[in-house]
Design a protein that fits this description.
Largest sheet: 7 strands, parallel
CATH superfamily: NAD(P)-binding Rossmann-like Domain
Strand content: 15-25%
Order of helices and strands: EHEHEHEHEHEHHHE
Number of domains: 1
CATH class: Alpha Beta
Radius of gyration: 17 Å
Distance between the termini: 35 Å
Helix content: 40-55%
CATH topology: Rossmann fold
Shape: globular
Bound molecules: NADPH dihydro-nicotinamide-adenine-dinucleotide phosphate, 2-hydroxyethylsulfonic acid
Length: about 250
């Protein structure tokens, strides 16, 4: 699956996990990649492996920084992937600072990036905007509460983007994976490696490369085809609550 004309692909959250795998896969498919995240040491190490790529230090929660960094770039493919969960306890024990961080990153971060990139895509009458949603944005699970709400909001934004900006040459896709083994669980449990490892005990999660493969499929379709919604489960995961473990 190859991209034509060496398009410029922005990947937010390219310093780890799904974003890093997506950047590698897009580059292999023929894109010039713009790698965005907060940890520039990781971005620079990745950029050295991907000739022609660029890095930008970006906190997607910072609306004016996002606007400044992206508004003048002719981005053909925007993979709005930066995101995180914090904690998995019940709402009645939740920490409002964690709620802010999830909503500011997962929801407003997507809005900030879309606001900066979409006008140019609409002017050029082409482009791909891919949102990293989640099955957590389709089914709530115990303790998922605010993370679930953030990903349900991403799904609403996907639908809203289609209505607000659809029909003008730009394709919108929501890519919604189930469990993927990345640093996600470590971030969620604030570096507790045992707790993070237990998430994947006795089951085979998706690899970030599996998600990147689906992404490349979506953006390499002919211009008149918009895949739209991709839900990608590990075979052993039947729902956000049901995982067959050995
Ligand atoms: P990782 O923790 O491995 O990677 C998260 C990435 O997001 C990092 O590159 C991190 O970079 C970046 N990021 C976090 N906060 C910010 C911020 N404020 N500004 C810019 N970048 C930020 O997790 P995943 O790869 O698993 O997650 C990627 C996306 O996929 C998320 O949206 C997640 O919700 C979604 N997802 C994950 C699933 C999973 O099971 N892993 C399943 C379904 C969806 P840095 O810290 O350097 O800024
Ligand atoms: C991340 C997948 O199941 O941990 O979106 O919520 S899950």
């Amino acid at each position: 699956m190859k991209l034509k004309n060496n398009p410029l692909a922005l990947v937010t959250g390219a310093s780890a996990g799904i974003g890093e795998a997506s950047a590698r896969a897009l580059h292999a498919a023929g894109a010039q990649v713009l790698l965005a995240a907060r940890r520039t040491d990781r971005l620079q190490a990745l950029a050295e492996e991907l000739p022609g790529s660029e890095t930008v230090q970006l906190d997607v929660r910072d609306a004016s920084a996002v606007q400044k960094a992206l508004q003048d770039r002719a981005i053909d493919i925007a993979v709005l992937n930066a995101g995180l969960a914090r904690g998995a306890g019940p709402i009645q024990e939740g920490d409002p600072a964690d709620w802010d961080e999830m909503l500011d990153t997962n929801v407003k971060g997507v809005l900030h990036c879309a606001r900066a990139v979409l006008p140019g895509m609409l002017d050029r009458k082409r482009g791909d905007m891919v949102l990293l949603g989640s099955v957590a944005g389709r089914q709530v699970y115990p303790g998922g509460n605010v993370y679930n709400a953030s990903k349900f909001a991403v799904h609403a934004l996907y639908q809203a983007l289609r209505l607000d900006a659809g029909g003008r040459g730009v394709r919108f896709t929501t890519l919604d994976p189930g469990m993927v083994q990345t640093e996600f669980a470590e971030v969620r449990y604030r570096g507790d490696k045992d707790q993070a490892k237990a998430v994947y005990d006795g089951m085979q999660p998706l690899a970030p490369e599996d998600v990147a493969d689906a992404l490349v499929y979506a953006v390499t379709r002919p211009a008149h085809v918009n895949v739209g919604e991709i839900v990608l489960w590990p075979t052993c995961q039947s729902s956000t609550r049901d995982v067959a473990r050995t």
